Amino acid sequence: MTLGLVTYRTLTAGLDPFLPLILSSRVKKGKENPDRLQERRGYASRKRPAGKLVWMHGASIGESQVLTLLYEALKESAPDLQAVITTQTQTSAELIARKNLPDLVHQMAPIDTPFATERFLKHWQPDLAIVAEGDIWPNMLSKLDKKRIPRMLVNARMTEKSLQGWERYPKLAKKLLGGFEPILPANQRTMDGLRLLTGKRLKLAGNLKYAAPELAADEAELDRLRVLIGNRPVFAALSTHPGEEEMVVDAFEEILKELPNALLIIAPRHPERAGDIMPVIGGYPFYHRFQESAPSEGDQIWLCDTLGELGLWMRLANVVFLGGGKPGSGILGHNPIEALKLDRYVLSEPETDNFKAEFADMTAAGAAEFVSDAQSLAAAALPWLKGERTFEPDTGKLASYLSGDKPLRLAKEAALKHLKIAAAS
After folding, report:
1. pTM (2 decimals)?
2. What CATH code is assigned to 219-402?
3. Cα Rg, the chain, nearest whole Å
């Protein structure tokens, strides 16, 4: 065990007695579900089902979508396979619950203390651990290794900053990251970085998110809202974060000067932020999706603080602003391929390191562009809202993003091999 790991383990062991106090504070800030605090301490709220069980872990919404996609693929070859999936956020927990997948149990991820992780693993006794992207927790990984539970890293994605952080602790990185078998990198930068950190001969797998089908939408609701909207041009700002709504509303003010009947849809990444957004849009008549059954004709803005409806808002939009790219926010962008699959042009602020290759290819193909402020956002959106531009990207440059067969196949085959289950032909 490396000195860094010993130090981390000692510090987090001392944290364990204070978890109830820490979690109580997080409940007051709206960051924890008070009914699920015991899960965060490693105490299971469900019984372990009999048979082979996979534990899947991802931090939040994007990772959980990748893991549920992989879970459904595994069930095709192993119908009796059981799974428990853990995430860190309430939003991801709600999205997983909405999917209502058979034999998939959701638990809030245990906080990474030696005692919480031990309680979790002692109860669930997984046959395989699958971690998505880069949510790495030293105590949990050490416990898995001690119990000889194999672990995989799928859709591995790390920013330059994250990779540089690991480079400061090469022995720790090699022990923790090198213990994954296989590592399936989502992009070239991550693959190159993990090669250096682990000493492993890695191959580029590709992004599992490309295997996801088009975002779903309730057809009846889509038809109903299209009738209400009529011929109004629709500007959708999706997966927005603090500071972005102000820019979007300022841009909308410019848009209204040329298109007074335009409609703005705002769907924040975290729906619980609706109360913070209302003062920003308060100068306009607006519809609050969570509280009202239907918008009125006079509403200029729709605040859509609901889960699982991004596909609906994308289909209604003439053009999409995708949040998460605000410089200095540290979010580093959201997945633009979801909009691409629905033939929607994407506007974003430029700090999108988590999807650097995707945005580079989409901008080169005429499917996206970067904006820097309200004025440039309005200028970029207006041609789409006026019907002066149509979505005709160079699809030859985007073909790899429209099919995720390879990364899904590689992840599925590796998991089945660990579980000693033959893949279906």
Report:
1. 0.83
2. 3.40.50.2000
3. 22
